[in-house]
Structure formats: C-alpha cells, structure tokens
C-alpha cells in the first residue's frame, strides 16, 4: 500500500507540538516540570473539547483517552519523562531534516503524534455525524517510563480492556518489535578482611573475591546466536575500598542481565547463587515483552510490505502488556539510535511517514475482528 501524504498543516502541528513538549524539562530530578507538561497536554485536549481522564500514582501523572469507558480496540502508548540532560537539549533545534533535543525520539514525538492523530480522527467522525465512541483507538501518555513504569502504564493498564496496543517507543518505520528482553538486576556483595595495604598477607581482599565470583557468573553467559538473541550480562557498577593503602573488606557490584524466553529468571538466579561465594540478591526483576499474534498486526504487515517483525534487546513499558495478556507491538520512527545521547534526534521524514501509516491503519482497523 502506498503511503498517504501528510497534510502540511498536520505536519506543522506535530512538529510544533513536539517542540513545545521538548521545552519542558521533564527529568525525574524536576518533578514540577513533569506536572507542568502533563497540564499542558490536558490544556491541549480541553482546547479541542476532547474528554480525558487524568491519574496520579505516587506523584506521577498519566493521561488516558478512550472511545468508551475503560475500553479501546487499539491503544497508542507513549511517555513524556526523559533522562537527565544539559539545559541546551531542552531548546529544540531543526538541522538536516531532523529535530534535535532531549525527548525528540524518546518519547515526546510520540505524545505529540498521538494527540494530533486523535484530534484529526475525532474531527472526521464529527463531520460524519458520529461520536467519539466510534473511534478505533485511544491513547495513554505516562510520565514514569524511564524509572520503571510501575506508577504509570502498569497501574492504568490494569483497569482498561484493550485488544491491541502500539507502544510508540522503539523500532523503526520498517521494523515493528514484537519481543523485548526481560530485565534481571543483581547485586553481588563480597566480604574480606581489612589490613594495611603494605601487609596484604594479613588481610583478605574483598575486590579479589568479587572478581572471582564475577568470573564464575560470566561463564554462564557465553551463548552466541543470530542477532545476539540470548541472555547477556553487563558488569555495570562496582563500589569498594575506603583508602588506597587499605585492603578492602567489602565490595559490591551491580549486574544488568537481559534474558529471553529461553530463560527462567528465578532458575537463573538460583544457579548463579549456588555458584558464587558472596551474597547475591535480586535488585529488580522485570518480565519480557511478548507481543504475540494479532489480526491487527497482520493488517499492518499486509498494508505495508516493507515492514518486518523483529526483536529488541532493551525494555519498555510494553512489558506490562504481556503481564495483562494484551497483544501488541513497539513501533516508532528513525532516530539513528540517538536516544539518551547528547545528539538525540528524530528524522522528520520518518516521523511524518509514521503518522501517515498510523492514520491509514486506524482507518482500516474497524474492519478487524479481534
């Protein structure tokens, strides 16, 4: 199917709204900015007479718009919170066909696109003499994805019925993601015996004990395979020692483990626990995202023959779909893997093409039988 051409007015509105959202410094170190951004979105919806619900859990606001109470055939999901960045990244800038700024690709373009798409479809329905209940989709915008999503997506999804969800937070224009790895974060604590650094034979070096345990753990992560679709280990943090001339008696490390459907995280943890001499504890455990099969996904792939269905190594709020038994995908425009970097950007041609595809998809979605 050929892409439609986005109307220049619509493209300009998406771009303007994305810039407006980027200007809010919605870092978790600035909670007032997160609330100001959520209020801005609420005002946008009120300005277009769109009924919406607002939620707040533990200080994190979420905004939900559904065609019917607690029910939507399709849900578009995005988030407005971002990772920390210098002041300059909150001044959006266009350059060489891309929009630069913190949140440009992760994930403020998605909130802007969702809002404009929703508004456009509601206006079309009104012209056809139909109400909002004829909408084939709703939108959810949260504010805690970067810190786990437990007070946003996890809370809200527990109380809504959705047949299919598109998390606009990954993938590319030609690649939709149907699987994301699960997350297992472990802390390893190694103990030793302190002594003066000049007489190490009188002590037991906790760092050396920790390294020995790390090498034992690492041996369980020697898998290979196409696309690295297997469990992985990242030795991400270490803390040890009080002084350069002292044998450390305690060392701690954090391991970031990503696992696939071939692993059971509890079984893996017990295996590692048995093989290490130090104390190993679970800091965080998150499920995989497994999008499953859906006639909505079939429709999307049939409409656009250049779309492939694939995997991602990172995690997103999409994992809460699996917990709730909701089918879905992760999708988005091209950002050249720039999320969280000082050169974060979204390619505008890809963003507008994504809007076109979603727009056409939503027009055909009412004909799908879930």
How are the SSEs placed, and which strands pair?
Blueprint: H1 8-22, H2 31-47, E1 53-57, E2 60-65, E3 71-79, E4 93-95, E5 98-100, H3 104-127, E6 137-142, H4 153-157, E7 161-167, E8 175-180, E9 182-191, E10 195-196, H5 206-218, E11 232-240, E12 246-247, E13 250-259, H6 265-275, E14 279-286, E15 289-290, H7 295-303, E16 308-312, H8 319-324, E17 327-330, E18 345-347, H9 348-364
Helix pairs in contact: 1-3, 3-9
Task: Identify the notable features of this structure and list them briefly.
370 residues, alpha+beta, Alpha-Beta Plaits, 2 domains, 6-stranded mixed sheet, 4-stranded antiparallel sheet, 9 helices, 32% helix
Portion in helices = 25-40%
Measure the end-to-end span.
22 Å
Could you give a short account of the major beta sheet? Answer: 6 strands, mixed
State the strand order across the main sheet.
1-2-6-3-7-17
Low-confidence spans: pLDDT under 50, at least 5 residues?
none
Number of strands: 18
Radius of gyration: 23 Å
Q: Would you tell me which CATH topology of the largest domain applies?
A: Aminopeptidase
CATH uppermost class of the largest domain: Alpha Beta
What would CATH call the architecture of the largest domain? 3-Layer(aba) Sandwich
Order of helices and strands: HHEEEEEHEHEEEEHEEEHEEHEHEEH
